Inverse folding.
């Protein structure tokens, strides 16, 4: 009898349906999707909300993108309201000097003004060249003074001092001497005055001086001399070369290459200028020779 009851109970259990949560290997319910769709919703694409990372964005090649910063304009001459920027020439001429204030320009173009010390201004003159570079005006300071010593042998020497005034007068003093006891020599001197491009404005006369050996007397002599260059050339002076040679010299032309070795720029003074008549400074290549 017991066996019969156990058999009936086992049969009943085998035919009773199990609950869903009790079913083995049952997959979890799918998340809700859009109405009428059996597929679940996908999460939104893009970066998660929040602050963007700082730093420059890079191109695929790993380099930052090329571009101009916003609001910046490329450098260049600024145009005045209602007009066009005026370019200054690389050099102007002094038009007036009054109380240390120098006005420079050309016959029909813009003019500039700058202040100079009284010591320099007193020797500036109308027509003198003014070199313009950036926002600076540069002038040669007169008088120009230069000195050059030259060894012409083991014991033979020359030395010349030159002073060029704003009136065009070239005043020179040349010393010639030797330390040889029984032999003297002759030396010669010329002065080359040049413009900003190295062109000759004026060349002094060829001056030749001789001395004896120390045992014969007159082994050391000093001579002064003077010349005047044309007024039109004075304002263009930029450099001076004092050339001294043993004489006789086959040709002064043979010494032209040596001029570069003794060429000296005249002393200059530079001041920041202000614009006159709407002029603006040039941003071109440097005007004053180096």
């Amino acid at each position: 009898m017991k066996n019969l009851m156990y058999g009936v109970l086992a049969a009943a259990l085998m035919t009773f349906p199990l609950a869903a949560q009790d079913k083995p290997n049952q997959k979890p319910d799918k998340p809700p999707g859009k109405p009428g769709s059996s597929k679940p919703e996908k999460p939104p694409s893009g970066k998660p909300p929040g602050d963007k990372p700082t730093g420059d964005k890079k191109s695929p090649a790993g380099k930052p993108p090329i571009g101009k910063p916003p609001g910046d304009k490329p450098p260049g001459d600024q145009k005045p309201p209602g007009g066009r920027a005026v370019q200054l020439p690389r050099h102007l001429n002094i038009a007036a000097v009054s109380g240390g204030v120098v006005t420079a320009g050309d016959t029909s173009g813009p003019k500039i003004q700058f202040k100079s010390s009284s010591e320099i201004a007193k020797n500036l003159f109308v027509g003198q060249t003014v070199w313009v570079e950036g926002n600076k005006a540069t002038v040669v300071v007169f008088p120009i003074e230069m000195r050059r010593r030259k060894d012409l042998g083991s014991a033979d020497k020359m030395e010349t001092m030159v002073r060029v005034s704003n009136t065009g007068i070239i005043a020179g003093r040349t010393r010639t001497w030797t330390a040889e006891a029984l032999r003297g020599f002759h030396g010669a001197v010329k002065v080359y005055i040049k413009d900003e491009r190295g062109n000759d404005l004026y060349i002094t006369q060829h001056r030749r001086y001789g001395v004896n050996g120390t045992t014969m007397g007159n082994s050391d002599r000093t001579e002064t001399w003077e010349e005047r260059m044309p007024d039109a050339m004075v304002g263009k002076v930029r450099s001076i070369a004092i050339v001294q040679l043993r004489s006789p010299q086959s040709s002064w032309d043979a010494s032209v290459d040596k001029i570069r070795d003794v060429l000296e720029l005249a002393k200059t003074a530079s001041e920041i200028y202000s614009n006159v008549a709407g002029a603006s400074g040039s941003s071109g290549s440097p005007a004053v020779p180096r």
Remarks:
- The first strand starts at residue 91 and ends at 98.
- Confidence is low (pLDDT under 50) at residues 6-24, 34-38, 53-84, 280-290.
- The radius of gyration is 46 Å.
